[in-house]
Structure formats: structure tokens, C-alpha cells
């Protein structure tokens, strides 16, 4: 009985903390970012792990 009561209290505080930690994200599609003079993502450099492994 004590374990069930303790679990309920911990769950309540965990859910209360999760509900308070919300974030708002705004995306501005009119803004273009640069690193040096590069403004596009080299997908072959960063996403090659997702290649199909059937050899084609």
C-alpha cells in the first residue's frame, strides 16, 4: 500500500513538471542562414547512413 501511494505521488509530480515545460517554436521561412558562403545542406555528407543497403 505504501509503495502504491509513493508511486502515485511521484507520478503526479512528474506529470506536473512535464506539463509546465512547454515550448513554443517559431519558424521563419523568409530567413536564410549561411555558414561562411554556404547556404545549402550537403545531404550526402550528413544523411548517407540512410542509404538503401540492397546494393542498387
Please characterize this protein's 3D structure.
The protein starts with a helix and ends in a 10-residue tail after the last helix. It has two helices and no strands. The protein is elongated, with a radius of gyration of 23 Å. The relative contact order is 0.06. With 56 residues, it is mostly helical.
Mean pLDDT: 76
Helix content: 40-55%
Strand content: under 5%
Structural class: mainly alpha
Task: Report the sheet with the most strands, covering strand number, pairing sense and barrel closure.
Answer: none
Shape: elongated
| Alpha carbon gyration radius | 23 Å
SS element count, helices: 2
Show unreliable segments.
none
Summarize the model shown:
The chain is an all-alpha fold and 56 residues long.
Key features?
single chain, 56 residues, 41% helix, mainly alpha, 2 helices
List the helices and strands and how they pair.
Blueprint: H1 2-20, H2 43-46
